[in-house]
Amino acid sequence: MSEEFYREALERFQGLLEQAQECGLNEPTAMTLATVDARGRPAARTVLLKEVGPAGFVFYTNTLSRKGEHLGGNPSAALCFFWQPLMEQVLIEGLVEPVSEAEADAYWETRPRLSQIGAWASLQSQPLQSRQTLEQRFSEFETRFEGMPVPRPPHWSGYRIAPDFIEFWSSRPGRLHERTRYTLGEQGWQRTSVYP
After folding, report:
1. What pTM did the predictor assign?
2. Tens digits of residue pLDDT in 140-164
3. Is 175 a catalytic residue?
4. Backbone angles phi, psi at 113, to 5 degrees
5. Which of 39, 41, 131, 175 is catalytic?
6. For residue range 98-132, what is the model confidence (pLDDT) as tens digits?
7. Widest pairwise Cα distance in the chain
8. Yes or no: is domain 2-111+153-194 CATH 2.30.110.10?
9. Which H or E element spans position 146?
10. Cβ count near 171 (within 10 Å)
11. Where are the beta strands (DSSP E) in 39-187?
């Protein structure tokens, strides 16, 4: 029964995501990613969900970025989706692992060329002397890869969050919101309703 609860949670998530995609949001896959540094200080930023399935939730980034450094030292993370038009929120927590090289290559090939060049040009999270410096780096890589496919940088890849916690929050009148929590423990996945 426990795996059925996990399948139920994923199906519920995918149903909400489809609703969010149909209601005109600019970035329905936008999610807040929270990580922790070596001192235990949390940090949050918005990234885009690129894949979801039984293995987990995938996003891509520069692995030398601040978030990449955090995940290298502490491979635990949390996600928060809030779809305001639906008044629905989903919280996800779990351990993070890199996607395979083949997965990263396959996704890289789907990215627009300008985004590929931008991934080479940006030293993500590092101090930037001026906007002109960034634009100059972009032009240099644009020239370097002119007339050829842009290869995936060695420092650019994806991460998969394998969840052990998924919670759904649905707005209800009188603050009597509905919260349903799915947790993975020693006995497998469990489903629990919790007070709002």
Report:
1. 0.93
2. 999 999 999 999 999 999 999 999 9
3. yes
4. -55, -40
5. 175
6. 999 999 999 999 999 999 999 999 988 888 899 99
7. 60
8. yes
9. none
10. 14
11. 42-48, 51-53, 56-62, 76-83, 88-98, 156-170, 178-185
